Amino acid sequence: MTLAALPSLDATYEVAPGDLDTFRRAGHVKLPGVLEADELAAYRPHLERVVFGSPPEHHAMEQKVAGGGKHWTFINNTWQLDAISRQFVLSRRLGRVASDLLGGASVRLFRDQSYFKGPGGANTPWHQDAYFMPLATDAIVTFWVPLTDITPDMAPMSYVTGSHTRGYLGTSSGDNASMDQFEARMRAEGFGVANYQTFAAGDIAVHAGMTLHSSRTNTSDRIREAMVIVYFADGATLAPEAPLTWSTPPEEAFAALIRRQNRATSLPGLQPGQRAAGSMTPLVYPPPPGGSDA
User: Fold this and answer.
1) Interior angle at CA 38, CA 141 and CA 90, nearest 5
2) Residue 16: how many other CB atoms lie within 10 Å
3) Do 136 and 237 contact (CB within 8 A), yes or no?
4) Are 76 and 60 in contact, with CB atoms under 8 Å apart?
5) How many other CB atoms are found less than 10 A from the CB of residue 95?
6) How many whole angstroms separate alpha carbon 8 and alpha carbon 88?
7) Are 155 and 117 in contact (CB under 8 A)?
């Protein structure tokens, strides 16, 4: 299928006022029917082709999340690998939703990635995305876009409601005991933990950059096919790098490694304090004149 024959995904999805309020208060929201079933059916085979036909990622974060490669398929920046993936990830509709959730800001792509978790695919530890990003802003949103219907046994995301307002709250390891203990600590501190359980194809979940989130093992007999797309408000700058010393805690040293990897991938050649804009972080909404990022 050619690009011209695919749905354009230009039509506007109106985020309901109640969903905007939920996102601002809770730090996460499920948005129903952002994509029509026939639109998703048209794009899904092409996204699968890119994901299954590309070499897997081996960055530190992917290794941590995948638990040493347990039935996961990570492909970073599919928009760079295929014109159809680019049309999907950089679509005006998704960009407009990100803009609405960020208060009307112009938005840029930070990255996209496949999060295909096969049967038996390991836990995703509790973490906050923005902590691992080299940006001097919390105006970041992560879209979790399932490509199929999702049932509770397929490891939908869990969120710590309100955690986006409390700064850095730590991470867990990926084993069940560590995740259970971390979740219990969050509840003891007064937070609620939410899980949307089911998604119809075309529904998406969105969370703020500092919202704690995780997912458990895929206990179904199906691959949980999901694309993750991260957008941020245009105008952000690169954050300064904290110096690492012999006394730096291992958790912070690991986070610094991830930030450096993310900077090298998404913001190559830029220095702290410079505007986070370049060929790997294209403007998504409003789209630039003539289709190029001016």
Assistant:
1) 35
2) 12
3) yes
4) no
5) 24
6) 8
7) yes
Please give the C-alpha separations between residue 257 and each of 31, 51, 131, in angstroms, as whole numbers.
33, 25, 12
CATH number for the region 17-270 comes to: 2.60.120.620
Amino acid letter at 112? D
Encode the chain (294 residues) as per-residue pLDDT tens digits.
677 789 999 999 999 999 999 999 999 999 999 999 999 999 999 999 999 998 766 444 555 454 445 677 888 999 999 999 999 999 999 999 999 999 999 999 999 999 999 999 989 999 999 999 999 999 999 999 999 999 999 999 999 999 999 999 999 988 999 999 999 999 999 999 999 999 999 999 999 999 999 999 999 999 999 999 999 999 999 999 877 777 767 777 788 888 888 888 899 999 999 999 999 999 999 977 765 564
* Vertex 270 angle, CA 265 and 271, to 5°: 120
As to burial, measured by CB atoms within 10 angstroms (0-12 exposed, 13-18 middle, 19+ buried), residue 71 is: middle
Largest CA distance in the chain: 57
Q: Which amino acid is at 70?
A: K
d(CA 88, CA 103) in angstroms, rounded, equals: 23
Burial (CB count within 10 angstroms: exposed 0-12, middle 13-18, buried 19+), residue 240 = exposed
Tokens representing 140 are 């970041």
Helix (H) / strand (E) containing 238: none
Give the span between the Cα atoms of 202 and 55, in whole angstroms: 27
Query: Which amino acid makes up residue 233?
Result: A
Cβ(107)–Cβ(285) below 8 Å? yes
Copy the structure tokens of residue 277: 């804009």
